[in-house]
Amino acid sequence: MSKFALTKLWRWKYCFDGKKRLSFGRYPDVSLKDARTKRDDARKLVADDVDPSAHKKAVKAAMLERVANTFEDVAREWFARMMTDKAKSHKDKVIARIENDIFAWLGKRPISVLAAYRVARDAVGWLLARTSAKPW
């Protein structure tokens, strides 16, 4: 395959505070119908005085921020703040329990999609399945 292979993109030229271009994806990954739908959505944004390129970047940044804040990230931040004055042996036990029991189950989930009642319900079921403990 050539180093200089051509890339075919669905693009739309528009004017919003100057000349700009917006890409809707690679051909054939994005169909003509999907590209036209995305173009029509972008036209509506321009009609509403919103820059489609800036809007696309803002949506992408919000999605990345939501995904970047995983349960593991928040739990490690909590651990760093709350365990500063604890003994090393206690810190080691707590982080080992969190890593072994919780991160394997919840670690990569975005914090924004976790609800307390679902986590509690699922945790009880997960712990009972993992151990031979009786609930009562």
Automatic annotation (TrEMBL):
Single GO MF descriptor: DNA binding
Integrase DNA-binding domain boundaries: 7-58
Keyword DNA-binding: yes
Record's signal peptide: none
Residue ranges annotated for the Phage integrase central domain, each copy included: 71-119
Species annotation: Paraburkholderia megapolitana
InterPro entries linked to this entry: Integrase_DNA-bd_sf, Integrase_DNA_bind_dom, Integrase_recombinase_N, Phage_int_M, Phage_Integrase
Protein name as catalogued: Uncharacterized protein
Gene Ontology terms describing biological process: DNA integration
Family indicated by similarity: Belongs to the 'phage' integrase family.
